[in-house]
Design goal:
474 residues; alpha+beta; five-stranded mixed β-sheet; three-stranded antiparallel β-sheet; globular; binds protoporphyrin IX containing FE
């Protein structure tokens, strides 16, 4: 299967069937008449209901129509498959029925083309294997050292504005977003913090914002216009950086990508390295920020768990502010459980799109080739039949005996199968370093009765930035 060629930054057809003659054509809305569901309003269909309140809309559809239902968004009908068995069918994809490129491409092709998540089958396998080198123990140990250093410095500065009582009022999401951008400049790109890293970070943030902007054409003064300009800047900068890193590699992820080789021993082409790196930064950034913010919220409102995680971190690192060694990551067992539980309650990737390459039948429903197929980790993670009292934060749901008793695909925040998140160990490592560095210095507190509202889509975040108090310890 051919993947999307590199094309002009402004060629919006890269996102459509017209620009991708090799994509499997939609079978036409009538071909899905037999699937239960809702077409919504004329022209707009269910698009705005789905975007406005994806979780509520999904719950309503599931209750009304059952675990296989159709909707009509962005001009055509598609099908949603809900349940652990549906997750397994689509993610494990034993029969290579589904295309990632054609599922994610219409959303991400203009700004993040040719990332691993947008590749299929053999081409995907080859590049994934090459890039996996960046996540082997040696480079991971180096990133761990950099994360400790950067996060310690950033977190230490949080209490500069503290009052006489040692308390600082913060928007926690914003703090983590900034910190994650700064650590990415160092561990992903090997750049010192400063104006250059800031310029790249701004370009990157513009791209991420544009990827979900309602106006899809890069017109002046639109988010898409800024996103496309950001992409141009990053491509130029990264192309130069590949050459530099090939000559003088550092201990950063970009150097690993620049030197990655395919099975025949050849280096990846420069533009391929650049696209993989830009995609990876996007895949890493908001997901880590979202999941750590969710964890912090649950720790602020479950002080007993916050105390347990603090005690665990102090016991493992040996004291406040001490670095968490790479070798000790596995010892933060309670932190691991708590992180898994926050990923269950608020998965950063709440839904995953695919397109069917061939006809198939699921739970007695015939689904023709070309149909857009969606699965929803958020819906499965909230199913009371799998997770009793699903809104309650209870990390003990992830003890080994409980995990063994559950369907393997009941918990899929990192996806599964060939496209399982490549950065899941990195995300877990960064989370553990954040826990150790933050909880050993501060107590996280929420005002009584405070209940932040969360924006559910495209990546969950608290609308007000999550207002917490940081109380300096010791
Ligand atoms: C809590 C944090 C994260 C979550 C919840 C998460 C979630 C996911 C999910 C669900 C997918 C699969 C999407 C699909 O199959 O359609 C994915 C893919 C991917 N993620 Fe993550 N991610 C996280 C952090 C990261 C980080 C830190 C990195 C890089 C350092 C990363 C790199 C990637 C890459 C490269 C892919 C594409 C893999 C492939 O298609 O082969 N992610 N992630």
């Amino acid at each position: 299967m051919a993947s999307v060629p590199a094309r002009s930054f402004t060629d919006v057809t890269v996102q459509s069937d017209r620009g991708n003659p090799h994509w499997t054509r939609h079978p036409g809305d009538a071909a899905l008449d037999a699937i239960p569901g809702d077409d919504g309003w004329p022209i707009v269909g269910t698009t705005f209901r789905q975007l406005g309140d994806p979780i509520g809309f999904g719950k309503e559809m599931l209750a009304k129509f059952g675990p296989v239902y159709r909707t009509r968004s962005f001009g055509r009908r598609g099908v949603n498959l809900i349940g652990p068995d549906a997750n397994e069918l689509v993610l494990f994809d034993r029969d290579k029925l589904f295309s990632n490129e054609q599922g994610w491409g219409p959303i991400l092709n203009l700004l993040f083309p040719r990332g691993l998540m947008l590749m299929d089958h053999e081409a995907h396998r080859i590049d994934r294997r090459a890039l996996s080198i960046a996540f082997k123990p040696e480079p991971m140990r180096a990133y761990c050292g950099q994360l400790n250093e950067q996060i310690a410095r950033g977190v230490e500065a949080w209490s500069k504005g503290a009052g006489a009582d040692g308390v600082t009022q913060v928007r926690f999401y914003d703090l983590i977003k900034t910190l994650t951008l700064q650590t990415a400049a160092v561990s992903f790109l090997g750049l010192p913090l400063g104006p250059e890293a800031d310029r790249l970070n701004k370009a990157f943030v513009d791209m991420v914002q544009a990827s979900v902007a309602p106006i899809r054409r890069p017109l002046p003064f639109t988010a898409m216009g800024r996103g496309v300009a950001g992409r141009r800047l990053m491509v130029e900068y990264f192309t130069q950086l590949v050459r530099e890193r090939r000559e003088r590699p550092g201990q950063d992820m970009f150097s690993q990508f620049a030197l990655a080789t395919r099975e025949d021993g050849s280096l990846l082409a420069e533009d391929v390295v650049v696209d993989h790196m830009i995609f990876l930064m996007m895949a890493a950034h908001d997901t880590i920020t979202s999941s750590f913010t969710t964890l912090a919220w649950h720790l602020a409102t479950s002080p007993e768990w916050q105390d347990k995680l603090r005690a665990e971190a102090l016991a493992v690192t040996g004291g406040p502010g001490r670095a968490l060694a790479y070798e000790d990551l596995g010892k933060l067992e309670l932190t691991d459980l708590a992180f898994k539980e926050s990923l269950r309650i608020m998965p950063p990737v709440p839904a995953m799109p695919r397109r069917a390459l061939r006809d198939f039948t699921f739970r007695g429903h015939f689904i023709p080739a070309g149909t857009g197929v969606g699965i929803s980790p958020a819906a499965v993670h909230a199913d009371p039949a799998l997770w009793p009292d699903p809104d309650r934060f209870d990390p003990l749901r992830f003890t080994p005996d409980k995990v063994a008793a559950r369907h393997k695909y009941a918990w899929v925040p990192f996806g599964g199968g060939a496209h399982m998140c490549l950065g899941l160990h990195f995300a877990t490592m960064q989370t553990k370093v954040l826990v150790a560095q933050i909880l050993s210095r501060y107590a996280l507190e929420a005002a009584p009765g405070y209940a932040p509202s969360w924006q559910a889509w495209p990546i969950p975040k608290p609308r007000d930035g999550l207002r917490l108090s940081l109380r300096r310890l010791g």
